[in-house]
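Q: Please design a sequence for this.
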């Protein structure tokens, strides 16, 4: 099982992103490109970062009819990224179609991860706006089981849910967990945060870290601290 720290490149443009990455001279961190950067700079941004030797999680959270998702995934697979995602709420049929579209002619494909419930959605909003009246934990567990049944590789979830997901879907089912803060850092808009060390102890396979690294005075030192804290639990 691969375990790693993924840096969220939540930047508005290519120049800011490359200035940030230029600070890393010794290591090539696994990075996440989200909608902000991808919609601003397009697929060439992915190619530019890949050419520098980084692994890439392309976080576009696809959610559409199965045929459209299959075709969109075919386009993303050609970008040579390492991880992509869909919303589990799109149904098993949509997830299966996404997986089919990702398969490259040589039989390889990026990891496909499902978003369960966004951490910005709480039980009140689920109940009152989405008419889902089950507990959040139960919904996350059910979406994870659907993703596993559709053949996906894992889910995005909170570190606090990682061990339950592993219990239901097996230890090889990947948990990718945002909501991470180094001790002493500002929580920002995240409601529940976990340190890299605690995420490691709770069984996360990949932690996604944005502002604790990107807004640090010394991002390289902050990245190294995250790696050291996170990976020591798995030794
Ligand atoms: O700066 P911070 O560490 O809070 O950034 C977390 C990253 O993970 C952001 O790119 C955010 O969009 C993403 N994310 C999240 N919660 C989710 C899914 C993705 O924070 N449930």
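A: Design:
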């Amino acid at each position: 099982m691969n375990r790693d720290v993924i840096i969220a490149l939540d930047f508005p443009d290519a120049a800011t992103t490359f200035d940030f990455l230029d600070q890393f001279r010794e290591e090539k961190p696994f990075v996440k490109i989200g909608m902000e950067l991808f919609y601003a700079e397009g697929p060439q941004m992915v190619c530019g970062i890949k050419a520098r030797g980084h692994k890439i999680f392309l976080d576009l959270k696809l959610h559409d009819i199965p045929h459209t998702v299959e075709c969109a995934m075919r386009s993303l697979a050609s970008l040579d990224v390492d991880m992509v995602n869909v919303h589990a709420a799109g149904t098993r049929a949509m997830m299966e179609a996404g997986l089919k579209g990702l398969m490259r002619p040589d039989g390889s494909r990026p990891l496909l991860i499902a978003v369960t419930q966004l951490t910005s959605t709480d039980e009140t909003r689920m109940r009152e706006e989405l008419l889902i009246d089950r507990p959040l934990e139960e919904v996350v567990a059910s979406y994870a089981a659907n993703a596993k049944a559709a053949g996906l590789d894992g889910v995005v979830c909170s570190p606090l849910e990682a061990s339950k997901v592993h219990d239901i879907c097996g230890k090889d089912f990947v948990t990718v967990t945002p909501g991470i803060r180094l001790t002493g850092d500002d929580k920002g808009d995240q409601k529940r945060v976990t340190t890299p060390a605690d995420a490691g102890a709770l069984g996360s396979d990949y932690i996604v870290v944005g502002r604790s690294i990107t807004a640090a005075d010394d991002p390289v030192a902050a990245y190294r601290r995250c790696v050291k804290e996170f990976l020591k639990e798995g030794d």
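Q: Thanks. Anything notable?
A: Residues 13 and 41 are 7 Å apart (CA to CA). The chain is about 45% helix and 15% strand.
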